[in-house]
Structure formats: structure tokens, C-alpha cells
């Protein structure tokens, strides 16, 4: 199994943001990433911006560009058109997700869960796309229980996913337990840990509450104690996340997927300490 680094971005919504993202990508190429991925607003809210960002990255070359694609509030015809668009531009990697129903949108669309999207992509495009799906070592916030969540993860893999990227977490044990549980029920695809650098406590706390990622109490308390001291937050965050990555790598993680928030400095600092900058 190859070790793969990857970086995730959100699609910029201004020309200035797009220019800055170009610089960020340029800097992150020092990691020799396997792919750069671009998020997709559930319900299609970023459809064109995701598409533009992905095509630009693909044209730049150097590493694969992988669009995220959510299926909530979508139709089969709509998804088919997007797949064709990407295929026509030589994209051969995709991150397939359900997404969350956007507020105000009432029509749930023709897909209920990500396993249906994966099956649809396979039915429409065969083996053209390398498909990544989401995994949740600390369990998805809507999961009724851990065993069912794992079973639902297996359904995505059985539908044709080649690998998974996890929600971010700061408890390495949750990841290793999750891998053990996957192995126990015969899930053999690589599960790459998603890594969220810590640079902004308020934002991190908001995200974590929404997506069900636990910030361990000792980390939360230390971050709270720094108040507005962003340098202290960054320095402590760098120590915590580097130590997490070291444990994951020592335990055999098949790669690292960085949630960059369209910034390069924190990711580069972590990878520099890990000896992963070329
Ligand atoms: P699913 O795998 O469908 O799971 C959702 C919930 O339904 C889980 O609780 C699961 O246990 C349950 N479930 C699954 N299958 C079934 C079934 N067949 N029957 C009954 N219950 C089932 N969101 C975006 O909007 N845009 C993005 O670009 C984006 N990128 C992401 C990238 C990564 C790596 C990750 C980890 C998350 C990303 N998300 C993104 C967030 C994601 O869309 C949400 O977490 C969403 O709530 C679930 O998506 P999923 O693909 O995991 O859904």
C-alpha cells in the first residue's frame, strides 16, 4: 500500500481568494501530495466554483485533482451530468458523500445515503473513478449506534469505494479502534486519517460541535486559556497535531489528509516536523 498525502480546500468565492489559493497550492506541492481535493456545497451551492477550482488544479498538473460530490438534494440526471463533466476533463478521482440537507431546501432528492451515490458512480462510469468515501472514527453525529455506523460504512465500501478519509479527530485511539473494527468485519480499504491543524480555537470548537469531532478536555482547556493569543494557540496546536500524526504514522496510517482551510503554513509546519517536506 502506498503512503499518500493529500490536501483539502474549499472553493474560493472571490478572484482574490482564487489567487491566494494558487499560492497555497504552490507551497503545498513541497509535500508531493497524491491529490488536492475540493469540497462541494451540499445541494449544489458551490457546483460551479468547485468545478472551476478542480479544473484549474487539474490543468496545473503535478498531482491529481479530486472533486468532492454530495448527493443529498440531487437527482440522478444532475449527478450523471457532473460525472460526465469531470470525466471529460480527465478527472479520475472523486470523494463521494451524502452531505447534509441545506437549510431551506425541502426536496431530499433521489439519493438517501452515500452508498447509493457510490453505487451510482460505479454503475454509470465503471472503474473510471478512484472513489473515496467518508469515515468516522468517533462516529457520525446522526449515527444511532457505533455498530450500525460501521455497518453503513461497510455498505459504502461494498458499493465500490476504493478508500476512505476520516472526519478529523484528536483521539488516536478512536482511529486505531476503528481500523480494528473494520478489519474484524472484513473492510480492507485504506482509511486515511483526516488531520485538522489547530490555529483558531473559536472556529475549531464550532466545527467540532457540528461534526461530532471531540476536542479532548485537556486540549480544549489549554486552548481556552490562551484567549486571543493566536501565536500561543498555533504553537500549542502544532505540538498537539504533530504528536497525533507521529502516533498515526507509527501505527501504520496509510496516509494523511489535511483539512487546510485554504492555508499552507500550519500544514507545512506539521509536515516539516514530521520530515515530510521535500
Ligand atoms: P453517509 O455515509 O450516507 O452517512 C450519513 C449517516 O447516515 C450516518 O449516520 C450513517 O450511519 C447513516 N447511514 C449511512 N448509510 C445508511 C443507510 N443505507 N441506511 C440508513 N442509515 C445510513 N460535506 C459537504 O457538504 N461537502 C463536502 O465536500 C464534504 N466533504 C467531506 C469530506 C470528508 C473527508 C468528510 C469526513 C466529510 C465531508 N463532508 C462534506 C461532511 C459530510 O457530508 C457529512 O458528514 C454528512 O453528514 C454525511 O456524509 P456521508 O457521506 O458520511 O454520509
TrEMBL record:
GO CC annotations on file: cytosol
Keyword annotations of the record: Amino-acid biosynthesis, FAD, Flavoprotein, Methionine biosynthesis, NAD, Oxidoreductase
GO molecular function list: FAD binding; methylenetetrahydrofolate reductase (NADH) activity
Cofactor(s) in the UniProt record: FAD
Metabolic or biological pathway: One-carbon metabolism; tetrahydrofolate interconversion; Amino-acid biosynthesis; L-methionine biosynthesis via de novo pathway
The reaction(s) this protein catalyses: (6S)-5-methyl-5,6,7,8-tetrahydrofolate + NAD(+) = (6R)-5,10-methylene-5,6,7,8-tetrahydrofolate + NADH + H(+)
Enzyme Commission number(s) of this protein: 1.5.1.54
Class of the enzyme per the UniProt entry, highest EC level: oxidoreductase
GO biological process: methionine biosynthetic process; tetrahydrofolate interconversion
InterPro entries: FAD-linked_oxidoreductase-like, Mehydrof_redctse-like, MTHF_reductase_bac
Family: Belongs to the methylenetetrahydrofolate reductase family.
Official protein name in the record: Methylenetetrahydrofolate reductase
Species in which this protein is naturally found: Plasticicumulans lactativorans
